[in-house]
Model the fold of this input.
Amino acid sequence: MSELLHSAEFWVLVAFLILVGAVFKKVSAVLTSGLDARAARIKAQLDEAEKLREDAQSLVAEYQRKQRAAGQEAEAIVAQAKSEAERMRQQAHADLEQALKRRQQQALDKIAQAEAEALEAVRNQAVDLALAASARLLADNLDETKAARLVDQAIEELPGKLH
Done:
C-alpha cells in the first residue's frame, strides 16, 4: 500500500475524485436550486391557475344567479303586463257599456222629447181646429143679442180668472 501512496497516478486519481466530488457538489447545488426554483414557479402557476378557476366558477355562478333573477323579473313584468292589459280591457268594456247606456238614454230622451213635441203640435192643431169650428158654429148659430150677452158675461168673469 505504501507503493500506492507514492504513485503519481494514485494522487491524480484522488485529485480527480476530489475535483469530480467538488464539481458534483456545486453542480448538484445549482441543479437542485434551479429545480427548486422551477418547482416554485410551477407551484405558483398552479396556484394562480386554481385561483383563476375558482374566480371563473364564482363568476359563472354569479352570472347564472343574475340570469335566473333577470328571468324571474322578466316573468314578473310579463305577468304584470298581462294583468294590466286585462284590467284595461275590463275598464274599456265597462266604459263602452256606460257610453252605450248614455247614448241609449240620450236616444230615448230625444224620442220622448220628439213625442212630446208631436203631441203638443197635435194638441195645438186640435185646439186651433176646435176654436175655428167653435167660431164657425157660433158665427152660424149665434145672433147679435146672444153674442153681446156672452161677451158681457166673459168680461164679468175675467177679473176672477185673472187672479
Q: What stands out?
A: The CA atoms of residues 46 and 52 lie 10 Å apart. The chain is about 95% helix and 0% strand.
